[in-house]
Amino acid sequence: MSADAVRAQIEALLPAVLNSPLMLAAALLACLVTVGSIWVAFVERDPLPGRLKAIEARRSQLRSQALAARRRAGRTEEPGLMRKVVGHLKLLRSQAATAAQGKLLRAGWRSRDALVRFLFAKAISPIAAGGIAALLFYGLDLFHLSALGKLAGSTGFTLFGAYLPDLYVHNAFQKRSQALRLALPDGFDLLVICAEAGLSLDAALERVSREIAEAAPELADELGLTAVELSFLPERTKALENLAERVPLAGMRALINTLVQTERYGTPLSQSLRVLSAELRTERMMKAEEKAARLPVTLTLPMVLFIMPSLFIVLIGPAILRTIDALSRL
């Protein structure tokens, strides 16, 4: 079949194809897709409703999680040995329990069980330490001390047992404070970014807590809890004051004052946070320089006690030995 014959058959079938309903539907669909693409490309969309909807959904999720945790905490089982002892001694109603609760909050332990364990250890550790001392000094008589020495050793052990829980909590608080102090500048930088992006305060704190959860879990925990409290408490400044109470650092206090001022007067947040971040980084550098400057003074005592005597023995020892030999021959 020649090319002219093929062309003639195609020209004969073309009107039938173009007039078919399928072809008309395809052409109509192509026109609709083209118009829709042009409409989507040139119409400006407002992202604010979607952002507000996402923030509200996240707030509802945090509220449900907090309520579920509170319900789980309320459905406790029968009190254990520690709770029975603390309840029998009525230690939870004392002023020492309130002070201990503040210490545990600053150390990162917020549950009521932590307070019960601390009070139980506070009550039992002197008795345990005194019993161990009596066994060592009076029962086994390991060190063969006099009566006064045994009494002094037992008293020292008992006092050490009484202060051991406080020392443990204080050590945990110092480690947590150091971790928070190192993480604050990075957290401030992320807060600056979130504030410049248009996020609200509670949304910014929640986003920063998620971003730094792996690098700085202590700061992420505190910021996440503050974001939840901002959604729950009727006074937002109360949530910020709780954060300042849990983290007694100068940098955190400056942040709280800035946030309270922003909430009250509507001052710009990003510029203040940027200045605070720069100040914290400068303070951290100054502390590192201070430690480096104190290093020679710190090394002086070990050098005098351990290095200088060995050096004197090596340098002066042979001369002293020769002098002793010479004097012995006389």
Written overview of the protein:
There is one protein chain. The chain is mostly helical. Among the domains are: 81-174, no CATH class; 179-288. Helix content is 85%, strand content 0%. The protein has twelve helices and no strands. The chain has helices spanning 3-18, 21-42, 48-74, 81-89, 95-107, 112-139, 147-196, 201-211, 217-232, 236-246, 250-265, 269-329. Helix 4 (81-89) crosses helix 6 and helix 7 (147-196) crosses helix 8 (201-211). It is elongated and about 140 Å long. The relative contact order is 0.05. It is found in: Cell membrane. It is a multi-pass membrane protein. Residues 189-316 form the Type II secretion system protein GspF domain. InterPro entries: T2SS_GspF_dom. Keywords: Cell membrane, Membrane, Transmembrane, Transmembrane helix.
Contiguous runs where pLDDT drops below 50 for at least 5 residues: 73-79
Question: Could you estimate the helical fraction of the residues in percent?
Answer: over 70%
- The total of beta strands comes to 0
Helix and strand succession? HHHHHHHHHHHH
Secondary-structure-based class equals: mainly alpha
Number of helices: 12
Mean pLDDT across residues = 79
- Gyration radius over CA: 37 Å
Main pleated sheet: none
Q: Which word captures the global form?
A: elongated
